[in-house]
Specification:
The structure holds 2 protein chains of 2 kinds.
Chain A lengths: L13 H10 L6 H13 L2 H17 L1 E2 L6 E2 L5 H4 L7 E5 L2 H10 L5 E4 L17 H10 L6 E4 L5 H14 L5 E4 L15 H9 L5
Parallel strand pairs in A: 3-4, 3-5, 5-6
Antiparallel strand pairs in A: 1-2
Helix pairs in contact in A: 1-2
Chain B lengths: L1 E10 L2 E7 L3 E6 L6 H13 L14 H4 L6 E10 L2 E11 L11 E7 L2 E3 L1 H4 L5 E4 L4 H5 L2 H13 L3 H25 L8 H37 L7 E6 L4 H4 L7 H11 L1 H7 L10 E6 L2 E2 H4 L2 H23 L4 E5 L7 H11 L4 E6 L14 E6 L2 E4 L2
Helix pairs in contact in B: 6-7, 6-10, 7-9, 7-12
The chains are: A alpha/beta, B alpha/beta.
C-alpha cells in the first residue's frame, strides 16, 4: 500500500499496517482493504475494541471437535453430541464451511468429518497433513457402527485424489464408500452447460 | 469458415479496431511496426486462446491506452461464420490489480461464446486458423518443445477432447512431480502415486494417440508436398513421431489398451522417477523428427530445404484441418510470400484460393502483385488503424 507509507521513512504507518492486515484476508482486494481500514479509523473506539476482542476471542475459545474436527466452541461439537442424528453414516468434507452448506440442504442427518484440506502434493499437502488418521481412529474407537462414508470433496483433481485415497483406506474395513454425484446444477439450462459437466451428466445418467 | 467481423480493443497496437470482413483473399499492406503481426496474432488468439508469439498474456494489453483504467484489459472479439451458422467468440485479457498505482504482474484470460462465459476448452476450435510465419522454421530446427507446441496448437483446434486431456495432463504431471520429490525426501508412501499414475495414463494415452495419428497424416501429406515444392531434389522428407514412452507402449499407440500399457510403464518406472524426483516418461517429453534424405533436417538440411519442410507442414495442416472438420480453416500469411520463390509462392496461393478466407500481410503494396492475387480485397494498416486501400 504505497499510499500509506510513512513519509518519514521509518517503515509502515499504523494505517498501512491495518490495510495490509485486511488485504491478507481472503476475498479482500486493495480497495476494500482501504475502505475497511478507514472505516475502523473513523469508528468509535468501542467498535474497534469490539472487533479486536472478537478476533482474539475466536482464537482463544474456538477449538477443533475431537471427533469430527469441525471448528466448535465445545468438544464434542453440537452435531457429534446430537443423539437424534444417524450414527451409521459420515459425510467427509474439505472445510468447515462445507458442513454449513450440506446442513443447509436439510437432506443429511448423519455425522461429519472435516479433513481441513485435500491431497495436493504441489501445495505440499499429503494424506498425513489431513485429518485422515483422526477419521480412522474415530471409526475404530468411537463411532463403531459406521456403515457408509460419503466423500463430499470438490469435484476437481485434488478432490478426486482424496476421495480415491479414502476409498482404498476404508473399503477394507467393510465400509461402503460413496462419492457425491456430478452433473448439471438444478435449474440449469442445457445450452449453457460446459462440455465437461454435460459429458459427466450423460455418463452418470439415472433411470427416471 | 470465415471471420465476418473482428473487434480488437486495447490489444497491443490497437486502441479500437472494428472491421467487417467478407470471405475471400484479403491483403493487408502496412509498413513495419504498424501492427501487421499483432493483427494476425490477435486472430490466432481467438482460435487458440493463447498468444502464438510467446511472451506473457500481460504483453497483449495496450498499456499506454489503459494505464488509468481501474481494471486494465484487452478484448478480442470475432464473429465466425461456418456451414452450421454464425458464432460470436470473445477473449479478454484482464490485468490482475494487486495495489493501486502498481502495474499488474499477472493477467487472467476470460472467454465467452455467444455472450456466455465459457472455459478455454469450450472456445478453442470455434474459429480455426493456420498461421504461416517466418518463425515456422523453428518447428524444424528448434528444440523439441517447439514441435510439441506445434502439435498441441494444431490438434487443440480440431479436438476438444485433446484440449481437455492436455490441461488435465499438465495438472496431474505437476502434482505427480511434486509427490515424487516428497517421496525422494522419504515423505509419504509410494502407493500415494496410484491415483496420479492412473490419471496421467488416462490423459497421456489420449495425447499420445492423437499425436501419433496427426503426425502420420501430416507427415504423409507434407512428404508429398515437399517432393513437389523441391522438384529438383532427390532427397525425400520424412516426418516421424517419437513418443517418449518405452517401446512396448509405443507399439500400442493405436490400440484400445494404450492407457493400461502406459500405466504399467509408469508403475514400472516409479523407482527411477522417485530417484530423480521427476516423471521420466510420457508425452511431455515427446518429439517429432524431420528427416531430409534420411538425416535430421534441423542439423544437416540446407536453409532452403528447412523452409520447404516447414511450408509443406503448414500446407498439410490446412488439408488436415479441412479433412477432419469438413470446413476449411482461415489462413493467415504473416509476410511470408516475399521470401518464397515463384514456384513456392504459386503453390501457397493455390491453397489460399481453395479456402474460404485468407488474410495476407505485406509491407510492400506491389508485392504480392494484383496479377498474383486476382480479386483480392486490399487494406491499409497504419498506426493500428485498418482502412480500405486501393
Amino acid at each position: 500500500m504505497n499510499d500509506f507509507r510513512d513519509p518519514s521513512g521509518s517503515g509502515a504507518s499504523p494505517i498501512a499496517r491495518l490495510v495490509d492486515a485486511f488485504h491478507r484476508l481472503p476475498g479482500i482486494g486493495p480497495k476494500s482493504a482501504q475502505r475497511l481500514a478507514y472505516h475502523v479509523l473513523r469508528a468509535p473506539e468501542e467498535e474497534a475494541r469490539d472487533l479486536a476482542d472478537a478476533l482474539m476471542e475466536v482464537k482463544r475459545s474456538v477449538v477443533l471437535c475431537a471427533r469430527c474436527q469441525n471448528v466448535t466452541a465445545e468438544t464434542p461439537c453440537r452435531i457429534c453430541s446430537d443423539t437424534g442424528r444417524e450414527r451409521t453414516i459420515i459425510c467427509v468434507v474439505e472445510e468447515p464451511l462445507d458442513v454449513v452448506a450440506i446442513e443447509r440442504t436439510g437432506g443429511f442427518h448423519g455425522l461429519y468429518h472435516v479433513l481441513h484440506g485435500v491431497i495436493s502434493p504441489a501445495d505440499g499437502v499429503g494424506p498425513e497433513d489431513l485429518k485422515i488418521a483422526e477419521l480412522l481412529a474415530r471409526i475404530r474407537d468411537v463411532d463403531r457402527d459406521i456403515a457408509e462414508v460419503i466423500v463430499a470433496t470438490n469435484p476437481n483433481l485434488e478432490g478426486e485424489a482424496t476421495s480415491m485415497y479414502l476409498g482404498r483406506l476404508l473399503r477394507p474395513l467393510g465400509i461402503r464408500v460413496t462419492r457425491l454425484a456430478r452433473g448439471l446444477p438444478a435449474g440449469a439450462d442445457l445450452e449453457y452447460a460446459d462440455d465437461v459437466t454435460l459429458g459427466r451428466a450423460l455418463e452418470f445418467r439415472q433411470e427416471v | 469458415m470465415h471471420l465476418a467481423r473482428l473487434t480488437l480493443i486495447d490489444a497491443r497496437t490497437f486502441r479500437r479496431l472494428e472491421v467487417e470482413l467478407t470471405p475471400g483473399v484479403h491483403v493487408i499492406v502496412g509498413a513495419n511496426a504498424q501492427g501487421k503481426s499483432n493483427l494476425l496474432e490477435a486472430i490466432a488468439m481467438l482460435a487458440t486462446t493463447r498468444s502464438l508469439r510467446g511472451g506473457t498474456d500481460l504483453d497483449l494489453i495496450a498499456w499506454d491506452a489503459v494505464a488509468d483504467d481501474p481494471i486494465p484489459a484487452a478484448r478480442l472479439e470475432a464473429d465466425v461464420v461456418t456451414a452450421s451458422g454464425r458464432e460470436h467468440v470473445e477473449v479478454s485479457i484482464v490485468g490482475q490489480v494487486v495495489a493501486v498505482g502498481v502495474p499488474p504482474q499477472r493477467a487472467a484470460r476470460r472467454f465467452r461464446v455467444n455472450g456466455v462465459a465459457r472455459r478455454a476448452s469450450d472456445l478453442i476450435g470455434r474459429l480455426r486458423v493456420v498461421l504461416f510465419a517466418a518463425d515456422d522454421l523453428a518447428i524444424i530446427d528448434g528444440p523439441p518443445a517447439h514441435r510439441r507446441r506445434y502439435l498441441d496448437i494444431t490438434l487443440s483446434q480440431l479436438d476438444p477432447a485433446y484440449v481437455r486431456a492436455l490441461q488435465r495432463y499438465s495438472r496431474v504431471l505437476e502434482q505427480r512431480n511434486s509427490l515424487l520429490k516428497r517421496l525422494q525426501e522419504r515423505r509419504g508412501k509410494p502407493d500415494e502415486l496410484d491415483f496420479w499414475d492412473g490419471e496421467l495414463a488416462e490423459s497421456g494415452a489420449v495425447i499420445l494417440a492423437a499425436r501419433a495419428e496427426a503426425v502420420r497424416v501430416l507427415g504423409r501429406d507434407a512428404a508429398v508436398t515437399y517432393a513437389e515444392l523441391a522438384a529438383s531434389e532427390t532427397e525425400a522428407l520424412e516426418v516421424i513421431y517419437e513418443p517418449h514412452v518405452p517401446a512396448p507402449v509405443a507399439a500400442r499407440l493405436r490400440e484400445h489398451d494404450l492407457a493400461e500399457r502406459l500405466l504399467e510403464a509408469l508403475v514400472a518406472g516409479r523407482t527411477e522417477d522417485v530417484r530423480r524426483g521427476l516423471s521420466q516418461i510420457g508425452p511431455h517429453r515427446d518429439d517429432v523428427r524431420f528427416l531430409v534424405g534420411g538425416h535430421a533436417a534441423g542439423v544437416s538440411a540446407s536453409r532452403g530445404q528447412q523452409r520447404s519442410a516447414a511450408l509443406a507442414l503448414r500446407l498439410a495442416e490446412v488439408a488436415y484441418s479441412k479433412a477432419r472438420t469438413g470446413d476449411a480453416p482461415v489462413l493467415l500469411l504473416d509476410d511470408i510470400l516475399s521470401e518464397l520463390d515463384p514456384a513456392r509462392r504459386a503453390r501457397v496461393l493455390s491453397v489460399a484460393y481453395g479456402v474460404d478466407q485468407v488474410l495476407i500481410t505485406t509491407p510492400d503494396a506491389a508485392h504480392p502483385s494484383r496479377a498474383e492475387l486476382p480479386g483480392a480485397i486490399r487494406w491499409r494498416l497504419e498506426g493500428g488503424r485498418l482502412e480500405p486501400g486501393e
